[in-house]
Amino acid sequence: MITREWCVERDASDPLGALRDQFILDDSVVYLDGNSLGALSKPARRRILETVDDAWAVGLVRSWNSAGWMDAPLAVGDRLAPLIGAGPGEVLIADTITLLLAKLVGAALELRPGRHVVLTDAANFHSDLYVIDAMAEHSARPIEVRRIDRRELTEHLDEDVALVEFTHVDYRTGEMLDLAGITSAVQGAGALMLWDLAHSAGAVPVDLAAAGADLAVGCTYKYLNAGPGAPAFCFIRAALQGQLVNPLPGWLGHARPFEFERDYVPAEGVRSFQTSSPSIVSIAALEGSLEVFEMTDVEHLRAKSLALTSMFMDLVEERLAQHDLEIVTPRDPARRGSQVSLRVDGAYGLVQALIERGVIGDFRAPDIARFGFTPLTLRFVDVYDAVELMSRVLADGAHREARFERRNPVT
Ligand SMILES: Cc1ncc(COP(=O)(O)O)c(C=O)c1O
Q: Engineered SS bond to 175: which of 8, 36, 170, 320, CB 3.0-4.6 Å?
C-alpha cells in the first residue's frame, strides 16, 4: 500500500526534486494542469523582465538588431530542438499550432500533386480537424479529407493518400501513438506524415530524426512552460525544406525583408515558414523555460513522469474503487503520455470541487476529468494528496452540487 510517508521519502531521493525550486509555485496548490498551461519558472520570469525592461524599454527598436530579436525564432528553435530529436535549423518558433498546421498542410499537398486524400484521426483535437478541412476546401484541386479510426490507418493507406496528420499524445485519453512505426508506414505508402506534438514536447521523449519524420508542430505554453498564448513551433525535416512552399507568405519569411521587394522570394530553410513579426516577449519566456530543461534530460523526465502517472493510477484503483469511474489512459507505459484521464459521471463538478480545494486539473467534454503530470514541478506527495482529496469529494458528493451544472468558458 502506498502511504504518504513513502511519498515524502521518495521525494527526498528524487533526482529531479530540486528543479521544483526553479518555479514560482504556491505550495498549498497541487498543480495537475501543466498540460494545459505550464507553470512560470524563475528563468522565464527573468528573461521576460530583461526583455521588457532592458531590450524593449531601453533598447527600443534598436533591439531588433542588438538583442538578436530577428534571429530569435530560429535560435530558440535550435534550443528547443533536442527535446524533439530535431537538428539545427529544423525548428521555427512562430504563430500557433493551428496556423502552422494550415501552412504545413497546404505545403504538403503541393508536394504530392498526384494524390488527393488527407487522413486524420476522427478523435483528433478539433482545431486540427477544422483547419485540415479548411485547407482542403481552399485547395486549388479537389481534396478529400478522411477522418479515420487511427487504429485502422494501414487499411486506408493507398496511392491516393498525400498526407496523414495525427496527434502523438491524445489530448483526451493521454494515449501515446507509435511515432516511428506510423511515420514509417505512411512514408512507405508514399505519403507525408505530419505530427501534432502539443502534448508531447517537454513531456515524453520524441525522436523525430530517428523516426525520419517529415513535419511536426507543437505548442510551448503547455509542458514547455512559455506562458499563456506563447507561440507554437514547427519542424520541417532538413531534406524537405527547399521543396516545401509556405502557402501563407509574409514579409519576415522573405529572403530580404528589408529590401521591401514587391515579389515574394522565400528565405532559405525553415525561416520561409515565418510569416509575421515574432512574439518576442513570449519567445524570451520560452528561452528562459528551456534553461530549466537544460538542467536535466528527457530520459529523467520520462522516468519520473511514468512513476507519477503509474502511482496516480495505482492510488485511484486502491482508494476510489467503490466509485463509478474508469481510467481511460493506457496502463502500458509505451502507450502513455504524461497525463491520466478519468471517465466519471459528474467529471466537470469533480474538477471544479477539486480546484476549489487546491488541486487543479481540467475537464474535457463530455465526461473526462484530466490530470497532467509535469515531472519538473510535481512531487509524489502531491499525487498522494490529490487522490486523498478526490476520495473525500467523491464520498461527500461535493461534485454534484447544482452550481456545477453551469460551466466556465474555460473548463
Ligand atoms: C492537440 C492540440 N492541437 C492543437 C491545439 C491548438 O493549439 P493553438 O491554440 O496553438 O492553435 C491544442 C490546444 O490545446 C491541442 O491540444
A: 170
